[in-house]
Write a structure and sequence with these properties.
This protein is 31% helix and 24% strand. It has 417 residues and is of the alpha/beta class. The two termini are 39 Å apart. It binds flavin-adenine dinucleotide (FAD). Residues 15-21, 38-41, 44-45, 47-48, 50-51, 82-83, 109-111, 129-130, 167-168, 300-302, 312-315, 317 line the site of flavin-adenine dinucleotide. Flavin-adenine dinucleotide is lined by residues 15-21, 38-41, 44-45, 47-48, 50-51, 82-83, 109-111, 129-130, 167-168, 300-302, 312-315, 317.
Length: 417
């Protein structure tokens, strides 16, 4: 259902329907504004649970929320479209299908994408985990490789390498190792599980960099206990089809290489003609307006506040989306804008079943089962849509209660080609 246009109303366009963009349209709801939400997909993706989709624990529908529903609830229009350009002089947003959208205020919240840092072969021969499609492609590769080895059960190995020891890499490595240790003997009894190897490669001296040393050590110990080959201080020289070349000269066989080593702004952002900074991200002032622009805000992962960079996480994106919307309301009321004040809500990461780390700003640190339950509860609560919450709860419960008996593995599809 489309909202009826309000003649003469101030037009606000919000580009990108992740945590930042969705919070912004909610904040602008009920304000007699003409708000349009634009996204290249017709759904919003809950990225924190993508690794569960990639490891066959959740379906891709569990982490997607329809944008026409989100827009309707906020009294906004939804326009599916791929942003390709902006004309700040004419106050127009350009879309890939040739359409333009006029705005009085624009909030850019289009997120980032995988950064390969110029490592040869990384973009061509590894799987990233940033979109819903990425997650299903990776799942299908893993499942197809297992199915193939269950038929030709001779002595074929399955080597999976994960590059990047941040939260995504740790979660992926831990869950793949559990898949091998717990689900494989029941789901694929023909496969000798000792022939499946999961390696996690981190360039820095520790996993989970932003956490305190004790929690980092705990995460590493938990991964080692699950049989993950954790390599710290190890840089990647090249990714090839079937192997990963390390800077120390070692060569790792790798049937599947997953890239979780970092993010940057996608290439099209450089063509917007706006001020960019580290990682090609849009530089904003403290009120979140892009440097040199009076009507364009940038929030979330795509933005970097000059002199006050925030972590690329959901909480800063949510707070920034809210703040940008408030600044538009201030400007419309003839008031000054105000600087954003970030409230740190803490960080968490999970390693596997009943194993997680939580660090709160109040110096509270939790690990193990309690941390895992807190992680689970938070993710289920913040997942958009009651249907998704229920289906994710059912699928995750099913995974962890039944996977030693062959359950908890959602079948994939044959990868194309
Ligand atoms: C695998 C993974 C796990 C994560 N786990 C956690 C976690 O546990 N906790 C946490 O706090 N954070 C986590 N994060 C980070 C968190 O998801 C991001 O910080 C957050 O999503 C950023 O929100 P955003 O609104 O800036 O952008 P996004 O959520 O990335 O949303 C951007 C939106 O813009 C759309 N878009 C992109 N380009 C265009 C275009 N050209 N035209 C139109 N639309 C476009 C996209 O389709 C998308 O809907 C994780 C991220 C990943 C990838």
């Amino acid at each position: 259902m489309r909202k009826r246009q309000i003649p003469g109303a101030v037009r606000v366009v919000v580009a990108g329907a992740g945590f930042g963009g969705l919070t912004a349209i909610d904040r602008l709801a009920g304000r007699s504004l003409d708000v349009t939400l634009v996204d290249r997909n017709s759904y919003s993706t809950f990225q924190p649970l993508l690794y569960q989709v990639a490891t066959a624990g959740l379906t891709s529908a569990d982490v997607a929320y329809p944008l026409w529903t989100a827009a309707r609830k906020a009294g906004a229009h939804f326009r599916k479209g791929d942003v390709t350009g902006i004309d700040p002089g004419r106050r127009e947003l350009r879309l890939a299908d040739g359409a333009t959208l006029g705005y009085d205020y624009l909030i850019l919240a289009t997120g980032v994408s995988a950064a390969f840092y110029g490592v040869p072969g990384a973009a061509e021969h590894s799987f990233s985990l940033y979109t819903r499609r990425d997650a299903t492609v990776l799942r299908d590769r893993v499942m197809a490789a297992l199915e193939q080895r269950s038929v030709h059960s001779d002595d074929q190995r399955l080597d999976i390498t994960i590059v990047g020891g941040g939260a995504t890499g740790v979660e992926l490595a831990g869950t793949l190792a559990e898949l091998r240790n717990i689900a494989l003997p029941a789901a694929f009894p023909e496969i000798d599980r000792t022939r499946m190897q999961v390696a996690l490669i981190e360039q820095g001296p520790a996993l989970l960099g932003p956490f305190t040393p004790k929690l980092r050590d705990y995460a590493r110990a938990e991964l080692l206990a699950r049989g993950v080959d954790v390599r710290l201080d190890t840089a990647i020289k090249e990714v090839q089809d079937g192997q990963v070349l390390l800077a120390d000269g070692d060569v790792l066989p790798s049937d599947i290489t997953a890239w979780a080593a970092g993010v940057c702004a996608p290439a099209w952002v450089a063509g917007l003609g706006l001020t960019t900074g580290p990682g090609g991200r849009l530089v904003t002032g403290p009120d979140l307006r892009v440097t040199g622009q009076d009507a364009i805000f940038a929030v979330g992962d795509i933005a970097v506040i000059d002199g006050q960079p925030l972590p690329q996480l959901a909480a800063p994106a949510i707070q920034a989306g809210r703040h940008a919307a408030d600044q538009i309301l201030h400007l419309l009321a003839g008031q000054q804008t105000t600087p954003m004040r970030y409230r740190d809500k803490g960080i968490m990461a999970t390693i596997g079943h009943r194993s997680a780390v939580v660090e709160l700003p109040s110096r509270i640190r939790v690990r193990g089962t309690m941390a895992w339950l807190a992680w689970l509860a938070l993710h289920l609560v913040t997942l958009l849509g009651n249907r998704n919450r229920i289906s994710a709860l059912v699928n995750l419960s099913w995974r962890y209660l039944t996977w030693s008996r062959g359950g908890g593995v959602i079948v994939g599809d044959d990868p194309p080609g």
